[in-house]
Amino acid sequence: MATQKLILTDADGVLFDWGTGFNEWMETKDFFRLPGYERYYTIENWYNISTEHAMKLVSTYNSSAAIGYLPAYLDSVKYVKKLHDNHGYKFVVITAMGSDQYAIKLRKRNLRKLFGDVFEDVVVVGLLKSKLKILETYEPSIWIEDKPSAAEEGLAVGHRTYLFEHGHNGHMSTSHAITRVNRWKQIYDSIVSEEEEGIKLVPELQT
To answer: How many CA atoms lie within 13 Å of 183's alpha carbon, on the beta-carbon side?
Structure first.
């Protein structure tokens, strides 16, 4: 039987405003985002640098102390806490941020500071690595992502999937079964309204 009180969620671009934090850090190194950067997913197109250079910078940033001080993304704190406090949901964070153990500790501390004791676990995979093997270890639950390919992975293993839309991913096609949102309030309203109506929150696993 699928648990309906567990929400699996990405961190950056969903719980944290990673883009703002990264850009502030980049500006201290005299890199500035180009006009129209928000249309692109890849960092190299934000700053007109090579892919190799972009990945080195992202890796350095994700391993720095700055990763422990990211601001919350939009209304995430309010509605994560409401889903936990008022509706009994627990959260599992599945984040692709690298392997630096000190940075991971800072990420966990940042999550607790902003959201409180709502997290069952924080699972870390390598930078840009697939989350599929982690997602398939959980019974069908709710999955929240901002990367279309990772959203599709969750859907493929039976999770009710929401995709956070940003300028860089809005044009990317995804399955019609993935619900696109741009605020946590939309997720909250969807979950609560379906609970009240007795609608099954997670889909049947398609084979």
So the answer is: 8
